[in-house]
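Sharing a chain and its predicted structure for anyone who wants a worked example. Both blocks are below, sequence first, tokens second.
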Amino acid sequence: MRSRVVAVAVIGSLWSSAAARADGVKVTQELFDQDGWPFLVANYAPDGSRAVPSWRICATDCGPVVATDQFYRPGPTMAGTMFEASATVDGTTTVDRSRAWGGQVTSTAVPTLTGEPKVGQSLTPNAGTWTGGWGDDVSLVGVRACRTPAAQDCRAMTAASIQPGNPSQVTIDPAYAGWYVGAVEHRAGAQSAYPAILYRVPPGQVSSIPAPAPGQTVAVGPLSGPVTTGPDVAPPPAPGTPPDAKGARGSIPVATLRKRAARSGGAFVLGTISCSGRCVARLTLRHGRKAVARRIVLNGRRVTIKVRSGTFPRQATAVRVTVRFEGLRTNASRSVQLR
């Protein structure tokens, strides 16, 4: 039996409170890149195709325009710096300014793991501490298992990234006997896309998903182990036998649903679905009593979920999007705002 690894990603809160304001440019996301430096996104609302934002760097006063793009990555930036986006439409210029940057995102204490490294025991990851960023950033924590105490061949026992404030608890499977376990933590901006990932790996197999590598925004805790077995647990596979070889070849379907639809011509973009191999997805779009259903075959390709603006009543402000993968129990479903 092949292990099945299912990933369902749901976009998190991507719009700031500025989204409720009148027409104009808005800094919609205050994020940071993998090196811990600012990454910002601005859009002209409600129709982003009408203007491309320009960016200025601000201390006490703002300097000249340094970039004209929806996205801006300034690189190394001093704490206290703010960023101003501007756009001109029909002769009217609007501006919006970010919060003050807090400095490069840096781990000051690594995550820890609660639980005994023994088959059948539960492990819970605990977040460490950080400095820098935007001040409201979040920690996404999980559990990793490595074949050696030197952190070689590390796998994600739980979701590599999970919903903030909801750490995954995992029970150690016999397949991990002899491995070493520890916590892993990914720092993310509060307005990031939060991947909510569920791994379905049959009992007796090791996850085929690599654990995140340590970096400026990824901290790993010390490893404990090796994982031991009790008298009622079957012995682990012989050394050199990869227990998850079949699982590594399994297809991985991914559904990404937006919180707020994007406009593309005369259609709303609701999200994407993809699969690393052959998967069959059943897509349902529903508003009130009206529903639109499609069956989509994915052969290593990515499909954008769109709906024409006239498909549902003009007064419709949201549509319920549901994605189900045939042969799998996991599905993705959320209400996507249209206006």
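Comments welcome. The longest strand covers residues 253-264.
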